[in-house]
Amino acid sequence: MYISLNERGDGEQPSKGNAQVKRRVSSVVITLGVVSMLTDVSSESVAAILPLYITSAMGLSTIAYGFIDGLYQGVSAVVRIGGGWASDRVDQPKWIAFFGYGISALTKVWLLFAGGFAIIIAVVTVDRLGKGVRTGPRDALITASSDPSNLGRSFGVHRMLDTIGAAVGPLLAFVILYFVPTGYTTVFVASLAFAIVGVLLLGLLVPDRRPRSERAAANSEPRRPFRWRNLNDSRLRRLMLAAGVLGLLTVGDGFIYLVLQARGSFAAQLFPLLYVGTNVAFFVFAVPLGRLADRFGRVRVFVIGHGALLAAYALTALPVGGATITILCMALLGFFYAATDGVLAALAAQFSPPDNTASGIAATQTVVAVTRLIASTSFGVLWFAVGRVDAMLIVAAVLALALPAAVVILRPLDTAAKTT
Amino acid sequence: MTSRFRVVIATVLTIVLLGGATVYGIVAFSGYQSKQDAPSEVDTTMAAAAAVDGASRIVFRNTASGAGYGLESSVPLADPGGTRAVGTVACDRVYSTAKFSMCLRIDRGALTTFSATLYDSRWQAKKAWALPGIPSRTRISADSKLVAFTSFVTGESYGNVGFATATQISTTDGPDYGNLEAFALMIDGQRNTAADRNFWGVTFSTDDNVFYATAATGGHTWLVKGNLAARTLTTVTQAAECPSISPDGTRIAYKKNVSTSATGYWSIAVLDLATGVEKVLPEKRSVDDQVDWLDDSTVLYGMPRTDSPGDSDIWSIASNESAAGTRFIQHAWSPSVVRE
């Protein structure tokens, strides 16, 4: 991987007309991607083995584990907006992000001394809170360090590195347990080391950008105060509305895998591999789709991504199973994430007022997180009421209707997307 | 600080931290190796040399540190505190009868998988199943004709779908009855088809068509009575998990959730099937296990050692008195009583 560390700070406005500079992704973005990758290795390695740790080492049932998931998703949403707000307010995205990464790293220290189910749940929850805090300011830093015309690509590179971490973490944890079957503490120590390195790289190598002050200085006008109503931009509202509507129709991957599994498409013990497969597809598509978004239109790629999700729904509802269907579904889900995750952040950054990037991105991502949570909960109810295949068909049908609606809502943004 | 200086510091710290973690891992690995090679902290003998077969015994998972950790082991029923005969098969959960043993196992690797294996009395594998998640419970019927096993379906790391279990019943020499989710669940006479139905912890009665298990849906748990031929599960009572039927078939012991929070706190309760009277036993600690009957008036259960992860003891408690539990076998887990 090419990391031009000695070109730190080249995220300042690249000189216009210099195609060479324009095409390169800022080293700040790559550093932030590496920080995310290390942090994901840290979090995912622990998350991967927690069920085993709880049952094997502590001799407990995992009964309450799933319940927690929904809880911290909700809390995380609130904290995420708070992180974005604080970042814009104090005009220091780097240090707010640092705080978020730092909290997550500290939970790994706590884990080394944790001795009960309740403490482990607390550790996992605080870890997620840290993730909530840092997302908005970090994406604002990516925005501040990128040329607006290749923002999609910058986010693509960041999400690609992030995804590597999510895939490597569990692998590392299980390899450690393979060599040392009782080595849960070793996994926790490794997780702590990765987390601290991530935080250090952020603290030492990422420039301390002050987007509002810099903008004020560049335009030689006084720094404008932070106002929530700055976010009341009609284009940002449209983006949130469309993302929210589509989010309400995005059920968790787990459900899609469960439907495939119920069809006998793959053996139950291969379940974890589906997440790996989806991550690999995400990794492969992240940069190409980010570039496509910059050239062809971010709104279009965002909508096409949901088309891939619709195709995945439709595939699971087909009365045939088999490895081909499963692999296609993983590829479509990875495509969906690659076309929507970083691209949404790029869109939110594009349509947020310049002084409110972190809040704008955080608010948009929160809309998506909350609507997806509602979608998964409602889908569980629907699944219970009409059965898994019919539930899938219903969501697919509604998504097929919602996609044209999203196109209509987002149309004004599409013309705006042509930044040239 | 110049940017070059920062890069140097970052590089050095990265090498120190990741190198330190690597060193910790290597030390842990060699520590584990030498621990595995060290003599066991309890008196042991090789099962092959001990000639335990033919005598009534208690089979369990050995959790004493040192050689033989995690292997199926046994002690004579007459002398549970005596020298244990350590076998060769590693199990995370084990259950034996005179003819067969069921062994649930975590098969560790970069892709960690889980399996259930049926062994004959000489520990030769007869039948094997892949499990969808972490091993939980297993049982064999007293006549050695049926086996049942439960595992968690965790979906592992990559995001949790929620708490789910998979429980399967099979014959030892013929067809599978499949996952209990395919059985008809009758709650208070009403057919229930909820998607969040979960089943775990089977116990077999002396009638091979009848078994008991736990059913859960909508946040409630039930003791259910199963009919293999009819493929039905009918609720008997609420708030009862991991049943275990007494050798004389008159009572069922189970764990009863007495917690008001989400994390669960279980007491052992014994239900008299004839009178329907439930008695909660005076064990103050939370018991998260499927108990087994030592005899018609005593139950055995595992209790993790909080000061030593991965280690546990088997405790016993009288089912009809008010005496507290006592430690029965040290450094042991997953007991079953083999009556010859």
CATH C-level class of the largest domain in chain A:
Mainly Alpha
Strand content of chain B: over 45%
CATH class of the largest domain in chain B: Mainly Beta
Topology of chain B as a string of helices (H) and strands (E): HEHEEEEEEEEEEEEEEEEEEEEEEEEEE
Summary of the model, kept short:
The complex is a heterodimer of chains A (420) and B (340). Chain A is built from 15 helices and no strands. Chain A is mainly α and 420 residues long.
Overview of the structural elements:
- By secondary structure, chain A is mainly α.
- Chain A has 2 domains: 26-218, Growth Hormone, Chain: A, CATH 1.20.1250.20; 229-417, MFS general substrate transporter like domains (Growth Hormone, Chain: A), CATH 1.20.1250.
- Chain A is built from 15 helices and no strands.
- Chain A has helices at 19-23, 27-57, 65-90, 93-113, 117-144, 151-179, 184-205, 211-218, 234-247, 253-262, 271-296, 298-317, 323-351, 357-386, 388-417.
- Chain A is globular.
- Chain A starts with 18 loop residues before the first helix and ends with a helix.
- The model of chain A is unreliable at 1-21 and 63-67 (pLDDT under 50).
- Chain B has 340 residues and is mainly beta.
- Chain B has 2 domains: 1-37; 42-338, 6 Propeller (Neuraminidase).
- Chain B has helices at residues 3-37, 47-50; strands spanning 44-46, 57-62, 71-76, 84-90, 93-96, 100-107, 113-120, 125-131, 135-140, 146-152, 165-171, 176-179, 184-187, 190-192, 198-204, 210-217, 220-227, 232-238, 241-245, 251-257, 266-272, 278-280, 292-295, 298-304, 312-318, 326-329, 332-338.
- In chain B, the strands form 6 sheets. Chain B has a 6-stranded mixed sheet, with no helix packed on it. Chain B has a 5-stranded mixed sheet with strand order 1-4-3-2-27. A 4-stranded antiparallel sheet of chain B has the order 5-6-7-8, with no helix packed on it.
- The model of chain B is unreliable at 156-161 (pLDDT under 50).
